[in-house]
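User: Fold this; C-alpha coordinates only.

Assistant: Input:
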Amino acid sequence: MSDPLVDGTDVASLVEELTRSRQTVATAESLTAGLLAATIAGVPGASIVLRGGLIVYATDLKAGLAGVAEATLAVDGPVAASTAAELATGAAARCGADWGVGLTGVAGPDPQDDTPVGTVFLGVAGPDGVRVRELVLPGGRWEIRRAAVAAAVSDLLGRVRSGASG
Protein backbone atom coordinates (compact mmCIF):
# COMPACT_ATOMS: atom_id res chain seq x y z
CA MET A 1 0.00 0.00 0.00
CA SER A 2 1.43 3.37 -0.90
CA ASP A 3 1.41 6.14 1.65
CA PRO A 4 -1.02 8.81 0.43
CA LEU A 5 0.91 11.42 2.40
CA VAL A 6 4.05 10.68 0.40
CA ASP A 7 3.10 10.11 -3.23
CA GLY A 8 -0.63 10.75 -3.35
CA THR A 9 -1.39 7.76 -5.59
CA ASP A 10 -4.07 6.14 -3.44
CA VAL A 11 -5.71 9.37 -2.37
CA ALA A 12 -5.78 10.67 -5.96
CA SER A 13 -7.40 7.39 -7.03
CA LEU A 14 -9.92 7.75 -4.22
CA VAL A 15 -10.94 11.24 -5.35
CA GLU A 16 -11.12 9.99 -8.95
CA GLU A 17 -13.31 7.00 -8.03
CA LEU A 18 -15.62 9.09 -5.85
CA THR A 19 -15.94 11.66 -8.63
CA ARG A 20 -16.63 8.97 -11.23
CA SER A 21 -19.33 7.38 -9.06
CA ARG A 22 -20.76 10.79 -8.08
CA GLN A 23 -20.34 10.02 -4.37
CA THR A 24 -19.13 12.07 -1.43
CA VAL A 25 -17.23 11.46 1.79
CA ALA A 26 -17.04 12.98 5.26
CA THR A 27 -14.79 12.18 8.20
CA ALA A 28 -15.02 12.06 11.98
CA GLU A 29 -11.47 11.94 13.28
CA SER A 30 -10.07 11.60 16.75
CA LEU A 31 -6.41 10.52 16.78
CA THR A 32 -5.82 11.84 13.25
CA ALA A 33 -7.31 15.25 14.14
CA GLY A 34 -8.34 16.12 10.59
CA LEU A 35 -5.33 14.62 8.82
CA LEU A 36 -7.52 12.35 6.67
CA ALA A 37 -9.75 15.20 5.50
CA ALA A 38 -6.68 17.37 4.87
CA THR A 39 -5.06 14.57 2.87
CA ILE A 40 -8.15 14.19 0.68
CA ALA A 41 -8.41 17.98 0.31
CA GLY A 42 -4.84 18.05 -0.98
CA VAL A 43 -5.95 16.46 -4.26
CA PRO A 44 -7.10 18.87 -6.98
CA GLY A 45 -10.82 18.39 -7.51
CA ALA A 46 -11.44 17.14 -3.98
CA SER A 47 -14.05 19.85 -3.41
CA ILE A 48 -16.43 17.81 -5.58
CA VAL A 49 -16.28 14.80 -3.22
CA LEU A 50 -15.22 15.98 0.24
CA ARG A 51 -18.27 17.21 2.15
CA GLY A 52 -16.45 17.98 5.39
CA GLY A 53 -15.01 16.58 8.53
CA LEU A 54 -15.43 16.58 12.27
CA ILE A 55 -12.43 16.74 14.55
CA VAL A 56 -13.60 14.98 17.69
CA TYR A 57 -10.40 14.71 19.69
CA ALA A 58 -12.22 15.23 23.00
CA THR A 59 -14.51 12.42 24.12
CA ASP A 60 -17.52 14.69 24.72
CA LEU A 61 -17.31 15.92 21.12
CA LYS A 62 -17.64 12.38 19.82
CA ALA A 63 -21.18 12.47 21.17
CA GLY A 64 -21.94 16.17 20.67
CA LEU A 65 -20.62 16.61 17.13
CA ALA A 66 -20.54 13.13 15.63
CA GLY A 67 -23.55 11.61 17.35
CA VAL A 68 -21.82 8.72 19.12
CA ALA A 69 -24.24 7.41 21.75
CA GLU A 70 -23.39 8.33 25.33
CA ALA A 71 -23.98 4.67 26.22
CA THR A 72 -21.37 3.55 23.67
CA LEU A 73 -18.81 5.90 25.18
CA ALA A 74 -19.72 4.89 28.74
CA VAL A 75 -19.66 1.13 28.11
CA ASP A 76 -17.11 0.64 25.33
CA GLY A 77 -15.07 3.83 25.65
CA PRO A 78 -13.76 6.35 23.14
CA VAL A 79 -11.32 3.86 21.58
CA ALA A 80 -13.48 0.95 20.46
CA ALA A 81 -14.91 -0.68 17.36
CA SER A 82 -18.42 0.47 18.22
CA THR A 83 -17.21 4.05 18.61
CA ALA A 84 -15.48 3.96 15.21
CA ALA A 85 -18.66 2.62 13.61
CA GLU A 86 -20.76 5.39 15.13
CA LEU A 87 -18.17 8.01 14.17
CA ALA A 88 -18.36 6.82 10.55
CA THR A 89 -22.16 6.82 10.40
CA GLY A 90 -22.28 10.12 12.27
CA ALA A 91 -19.87 11.79 9.85
CA ALA A 92 -21.93 10.69 6.84
CA ALA A 93 -25.21 11.74 8.46
CA ARG A 94 -24.05 15.06 9.90
CA CYS A 95 -22.29 16.12 6.69
CA GLY A 96 -24.78 14.66 4.20
CA ALA A 97 -22.23 12.35 2.55
CA ASP A 98 -22.54 8.97 0.88
CA TRP A 99 -19.52 7.67 2.80
CA GLY A 100 -18.34 8.30 6.32
CA VAL A 101 -14.99 7.43 7.84
CA GLY A 102 -14.43 7.26 11.59
CA LEU A 103 -10.98 7.03 13.15
CA THR A 104 -10.25 6.60 16.84
CA GLY A 105 -7.23 5.20 18.61
CA VAL A 106 -4.14 5.77 20.69
CA ALA A 107 -1.17 7.45 19.01
CA GLY A 108 0.86 7.70 22.21
CA PRO A 109 3.24 8.30 23.71
CA ASP A 110 1.34 6.60 26.56
CA PRO A 111 -1.43 4.00 26.59
CA GLN A 112 -4.98 5.27 27.17
CA ASP A 113 -6.69 3.37 29.97
CA ASP A 114 -5.85 -0.24 29.08
CA THR A 115 -5.48 0.42 25.35
CA PRO A 116 -1.91 0.13 24.04
CA VAL A 117 -0.24 2.71 21.82
CA GLY A 118 -0.81 1.92 18.14
CA THR A 119 -4.34 0.58 18.59
CA VAL A 120 -6.62 2.16 16.00
CA PHE A 121 -10.22 1.46 15.03
CA LEU A 122 -11.19 2.44 11.50
CA GLY A 123 -14.87 2.58 10.61
CA VAL A 124 -16.18 3.05 7.09
CA ALA A 125 -19.90 3.59 6.56
CA GLY A 126 -21.47 3.60 3.12
CA PRO A 127 -24.34 2.43 0.98
CA ASP A 128 -23.41 -1.20 1.69
CA GLY A 129 -23.29 -0.81 5.48
CA VAL A 130 -20.67 -0.16 8.15
CA ARG A 131 -17.44 -2.07 8.53
CA VAL A 132 -14.84 -1.64 11.23
CA ARG A 133 -11.28 -2.82 11.27
CA GLU A 134 -8.91 -2.89 14.23
CA LEU A 135 -5.34 -1.93 13.39
CA VAL A 136 -2.20 -2.35 15.44
CA LEU A 137 0.26 0.20 14.07
CA PRO A 138 3.94 0.57 14.94
CA GLY A 139 5.92 3.74 15.44
CA GLY A 140 5.57 7.07 17.15
CA ARG A 141 2.63 9.47 17.08
CA TRP A 142 3.26 10.78 13.59
CA GLU A 143 3.87 7.34 12.06
CA ILE A 144 0.73 5.91 13.68
CA ARG A 145 -1.40 8.83 12.49
CA ARG A 146 -0.01 8.60 8.95
CA ALA A 147 -0.53 4.84 8.83
CA ALA A 148 -4.12 5.27 10.06
CA VAL A 149 -4.80 7.75 7.24
CA ALA A 150 -3.21 5.42 4.68
CA ALA A 151 -5.38 2.54 5.92
CA ALA A 152 -8.51 4.70 5.77
CA VAL A 153 -7.79 5.81 2.21
CA SER A 154 -7.10 2.22 1.16
CA ASP A 155 -10.21 0.79 2.82
CA LEU A 156 -12.50 3.49 1.47
CA LEU A 157 -11.03 3.18 -2.02
CA GLY A 158 -11.63 -0.57 -1.96
CA ARG A 159 -15.22 -0.11 -0.82
CA VAL A 160 -15.97 2.57 -3.44
CA ARG A 161 -14.46 0.39 -6.18
CA SER A 162 -16.49 -2.63 -5.00
CA GLY A 163 -19.68 -0.61 -5.18
CA ALA A 164 -18.77 0.80 -8.58
CA SER A 165 -18.15 -2.62 -10.09
CA GLY A 166 -20.94 -4.52 -8.39
